[in-house]
Amino acid sequence: MRKTLSLFTSVLLAVLFLAGACGTPEPVTVTPEPRFSKADAPTFYREATASEGMVVSAHPLGSEAGKSMLALGGNAVDAAVATAFAIAVLEPNMSGLGGSGAMTIWNRLEGQADYLDFYAATGADPDYELDTDPDSLVTRERGVAVPGMVAGLLEALERYGTLDRQTVLEPAIRLAEEGFIVHHLLADVIAGYSSRLLYDNDSAALFYPGGEPLRAGDLLIQPELAGVLRSLAEQGRDGFYSGDIARRTIQKLSVGNSRLTLTDFENYQPTWRGALCQEWMGHRILSAPPSLAGHEVILGLKLIERGNIARHGHPISSGEALGVLVDAIRIARADRGQWQGDPTFVDLPVAGMISDEYASLRAASMGGDVPDTLHFGNPWPATPRFTAPPGCIGDGFFVPPLNITERDADELRSHIPAPPVPEAPEAEAMETEAPETEAAPSPDAGPDANPDIEEQHTTHISVVDRHGNAVSMTNTLGLYFGSAVISDGVFYNSANHNFGGSYGSIRGPGRTAHSSTAPTILLSGDRVELVVGSPGSGRIPPAVISMIVHTMIYDLHPAEAIRMPRVYPMINNPVVQMERGYSAEALRTLNERGYVISPSNFPMNMLFGGVQMIRVLDDGTMIGVSDPRRDGGAAGL
Questions:
Q1: What residues does CATH 1.10.246.130 cover in the chain?
Q2: Widest CA span of the chain, in angstroms?
Q3: Cβ proximity of 440 and 338 under 8 Å
Q4: Rounded to two decimals, what is the model's pTM?
């Protein structure tokens, strides 16, 4: 099916280009015959088109590393793993071997969705004092959880990859040994976070040579990190989770009274789960289950569908359309803020939350006057009635298991009281309460009062190969440079601080904390249409929702969609943070409904995400775009 862009879109695009384009646009020749002509949308260096494979990441050299795997005949997983290891070298502030992440996978050859969770986990003896210690963030070593990134990437490579470990790790090793030129964003972070980097003599020597911070244009060489990468290439996961490297890490963490042990490292295992899968407006959505936030993305999209957003025009100019977008994002945020946690230990009503039944119920809260506080809904009654849509195949859908032992139940009861019954209209329509073993935060808690630790400190990778397989992967260290603890050139995460905020996100042995990340794939039948994800903490699901709305509902060119202004509504107050670019009429409509508008100082603000996205057209053309809010690049074959 081919469409042409509307006059409205063309005029809108021209305005956006004059107001906020990054750099001088260059025409891109698309082959085969493009759906979008070069006159339809301006392009920039962060865009690429191809037909045999595409990699998009937060650094051009990272995308090139993935592309080189595709050129060798590797598949999407080979390319994604190579890119992730390279990005660990190129973006040491955002992700790394001491961090964690997750990937949503579409295996077109098998007709199967899969999902791998390799988020950092607590050890056998969790540091419960972190839940009550107001100064815990000062104790950096105690903030480190067992890192999952190395185990997860190697596990994915072993299950789905076609290239050997040494080949996949070679680009990262070369970048660490030979170095790369520091780009602007990394230079800004190095200069702005001196207290984190000067905490340790090793990181100070690396990033503040001679006492001065590395600047854009300087060469960064990381020989110790290269040594760890070589150990991985030779020994696999044992080269990181046991042996001398692991022992030195544990010794360094023990200086700050970390409770992690070598046994905790050796016992860590990533977790394969079914991806969330739902039908939406003729597409299938594959996204991340808890402890991540794919259920927020799916609920938000279903609410937007029920709000019939396109009937009102485009959100950038129509207040009614913008209201649908903001309401849907706010409701989905409120619900995910309550129903999140580690599903291996805590039962969650996720199946109900992503159901059509529940979306129709929550849609009743859209429109009208804006409440100061938006209360979460109750998806439990819809959960037992949930059935996977016909289009969701195999294990490509997720019904959370009840896997709570009596010991876990006692722990839940001892930490937090039982959940309140949601306020009307939810309680009137949904009569069943959550299981009494569950618990909830105090009335003052919530996503606004207890935001995710990640902030903007995360990275995303999107990949599609020539066979139509796809990977959407988001990785993080937590804070910039994680805990700021470095050992053998590896920064370690701050994930141990990210528990709390809901009844499900309770600290316990071997548990992972909640996260806002939402690596997502959209399908038409068995064909990939969109691969998308973003960093940005709580702004991640809104960014993913917005990209899907702009590309799938409004049919915008990906380069145009990624530059559209974004919104981020609060839950415990009526404030909605907004990038600049919305019309006066749209702002007036939100204001009259009771929203309090908080504008960004920039047309495109990196706090609103760093989307890495691939759009696959009906004819097989792949368009990769990297968010101009950050440094990134797309590379295609």
A1: 276-429
A2: 66
A3: yes
A4: 0.87
